[in-house]
Amino acid sequence: MHRAKWFFAVTLLLTVALGLVGCGSDPGGVIWGTITDGGEVLTYQVNDIPSTVIRQPQLLASGEVDDPALLAAVREVTGRTHAQAVELLASFDSSGPDVVEVLVLRSDAFVARYWSDPNAKLGRWYAPILRGQIYLPAEARQLLALPLANTGRCVTLYRFKAGLTLIRGACADMTGNPEAFGPYATGGGEQYYAPDATLWVVDHVELNPNAIELVSELRFPQGVQ
Length: 225
Known about the structure:
By secondary structure, the chain is of the alpha+beta class. It has one domain (58-219). The protein is 21% helix and 31% strand. Strands 1, 2, 3, 4, 5, 6, 7, 8, 9, 10 and 13 form an eleven-stranded antiparallel β-sheet that branches. Strands 11-12 form a two-stranded antiparallel sheet. A hairpin with a 2-residue loop joins β11 and β12 (204-207). The protein is globular. The relative contact order is 0.17.
């Protein structure tokens, strides 16, 4: 058994080495994942990332961020007060052609979450995976208006399960809040807020196993922007 595990580890490391040679000089092509096997952390290269496809969801409400029906739906699915719902919707931009939607998934969907601080690894904000490509750190920081402390160098891929409720819309420009966001945080990318993705258990946050499943954890090598 130990010999089999050793062979598995060597095979993965050889795959990484060969992958490095084949990636050329484009740092965006080097994406890493980690798995734990019997307490050992093994690193491998990820080549195939599923795109986000949301098929015929059940639409509960849609509109601009100050639409009363949308606010009511957000309050209903999040359990927030009116003021808290307004604050949540301030993270979305409905000034363009797109509106904000509250919907329920009818099928599973793959999504990504960008983070850098392990304490902020779990959360309720997610982004789509477009054409099988995740954002580079600088792209995530801009399009998703990540806070100053979030470098976006770590990416967790998740599977949303059918039945999960989402708030979907374009990310708002957060550059007007320089205490929490930098001049890069212009937003514009699609984002999801999943109120039921995590649960507060005693004194810590956990994933809700009925709503979401971890697929893979990725990290960009140092130097990739």
